[in-house]
Amino acid sequence: MRRADGQDDLETLGEDLGEQVQRDFVAFIGYVSQTCADELDLPTEEDLGELDPQQQ
User: Most CB contacts within 10 A, which of 2, 7, 15, 33?
Assistant: First the structure.
């Protein structure tokens, strides 16, 4: 198990992982965000778009 001992560790956690592992993690987070947004009370892409000044 990986653990962050402070803010600096938290910000760099995972940087030493391989590119494929990082891509897989990003894909997993995207999947969870899309399929479990209601159950986890996550903002939708539409909600996030409202916060993005480039999309306004």
Answer: 33
